[in-house]
Amino acid sequence: MSNETPAPDRGERILSLRGISKNFGAVSALTNIELDVHAGEVVALVGDNGAGKSTLVKVLAGVHQPSAGTVEFMGQPVTLDNPATALALGIATVFQDLALCENLDVVANLFLGHEINPLRLDEVQMEVRAWTLLQELAARIPSVREPIASLSGGQRQTVAIARSLLLQPRIIMLDEPTAALGVAQTAEVLNLIERVRDRGLGVIIISHNMEDVRAVADRIVVLRLGRNNGVFTPDASNQDLVAAITGATENAVSRRSQRKAAQAEGTDA
Ligand SMILES: Nc1ncnc2c1ncn2[C@@H]1O[C@H](COP(=O)(O)OP(=O)(O)OP(=O)(O)O)[C@@H](O)[C@H]1O
Hints:
This protein is of the alpha/beta class.
């Protein structure tokens, strides 16, 4: 559809942010952010409330214009001056509200605004395409003729992700994709994220859930007060991650593990 050029090789740098800052009046939401995303990798953006995660995603989605800095996409400097530009380049975003139409079925939601033949809706072709994509993603959707209102939270997230894939993006950004999902649905969405990565896309996820982040991310990028505060691999200790997120080496998690270590020493003695 939007991108006819071949997909980048796995590991190739798709997106590169240098010195990105964003001010809202006197508030510095982002200061000097650096971020790289490669084909076939999941990057988790983590940080406390107000760390700047949503602002960064909105800059990449073309919703906010950065106050300073450069964005390179596939090696070329780009200006993401509105959401349509970002989408046309191949940067898709699934926001937390998912923006699905409750009363319409899965096929209609997948193709909303991108009907295969807008002048004469080709229902059969759209249905086949919807099934093929959902099967490729091994998505558990009972029927593509089911209205969204009757689907679970995990299935809705799946439909929202599948919809953005129809535009053949290079990068997909997911804002809290597992928030408010149960254990089984979370596992389903994490599996889906892995399959999206395996298609060679770069995936950026925002999450507050460290367990989910560790399960699916290849790199964990920490933001704190609008600045980069460390990049970790998923095997980083909880203590190091919490310290980077909160900016404190002395915190509830470190005190708890010190207490446990002290207790263990006590029982050893
Ligand atoms: N439109 C705006 N106008 C003014 N300030 C804003 C605006 N959007 C964000 N901010 C400020 O920018 C900072 C970063 O906010 P942001 O929402 O990006 O953080 P976050 O990491 O996504 O937090 P959360 O986890 O709570 O969603 C905050 O201080 C916030 O108040």
